[in-house]
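User: I'm curious whether this sequence folds into something compact or stays loose and floppy. Could you predict its structure so I can see for myself?
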Amino acid sequence: MMNMAQARPIAPNSPSQKQKLPAPRRGLHLSPHMVDVAVQVAVVAALAGIWEFGARFGALNPFLLPPLSVVLGRIWEDLIAGTVPVDLGLTLYRALLGFAIGAVIGIPAGILMARSNVVRWFLDPLVSIGFPMPKIAFLPIFILWFDIYDTSKIIMVAFSCFFPIVAATYAGCSSLDKWPIWSARSFGAGERELLWEVYLPMAMPQILTGLQVALPVGMITTIVTEMLMGGRGVGGAMIMAGRFADSVGVFAGIVQIIILGFVVVKSVEMIRRRILIWHPESRR
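Assistant: Here's the prediction. I'll summarize afterward.
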């Protein structure tokens, strides 16, 4: 007769049963963010290879499109000579200062438009007319009013950045849910507490989106004004190279603009994630 101890089934969590389970397979697991970065790097590398080999082997005219290695060599020479840091520094200074002025004026204006009917009646027609208008058309006026140096360029950048910032801020503050505002008021919150603890936190994603749109606009405006007005800066260096048929110098400026724009845009994205660490979009 079979022993009772032998007939008893093995418990699912017993050591002998655990030993029979297959070991999990270990492999390389890539996050979606890493996959996106890898794809972007592969696309950029492919375009750079097509550019280099197409110009090297005669598929493209070397004068109209010089090889990438030659362009990078020119950038390195200018970097050693000290012209690249000066040009990039001046361009970045004008773009960021004009952007900051536009943000300092545009964010309060958008908040006042959302909270005051009088301000909205006054500013809404101006914003509606000025937003779709090409801002660079005002450059001759700014040159006449101010000067041909940094002042007119910075004011031109601030003027271009103002409209997307004020529009995004107004949209964010005017579309807020009323229940948190009513709840805060029922607990005795004043207008200042409502502004800093309800309006701004809830509208912050929309405001930051407006800032992210305005910053590239400001950089584009800076390059265009430097090209039109001349002087030091990436745009001025490019237009000077174009006047002397220096195609390598022109493409060197384009590569510098690409690198500068990439660094600035990615920096703004990192700042956005830091500011909105409490927001659901940061979890995604």
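Summary: The chain has one domain: 64-283. The CA atoms of residues 34 and 40 lie 10 Å apart.
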